[in-house]
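seq:
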Amino acid sequence: MSELAITDLHVEIAGKEILKGVNLQLKTGEIHAIMGPNGTGKSTLSEAIMGNPAYKVTQGSVKLDGQELLDLPVDDRAGPASFWPCSTRLKSLASATPNSSGGL
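struct:
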């Protein structure tokens, strides 16, 4: 079972801090949704993990099965980060039944 662990991640763009201490653990087989209004850092999180040079990680770690992804060259991040089988997650979400409060 794989685990992605994001710990105390701080990311800035052009000197402005966008992510301020993100913590997240994702394990194979779990379903998570990152949601929020525009401008809250959802895209910044993925861009930082994948190594976009415009996004500077100033603190924290992103580890996949204990291996620090932030230390890897950008080209080497795509393989390990692709452990998220998106189509499987989307199928699971599409077939999920809302609970009594309307959420999943």
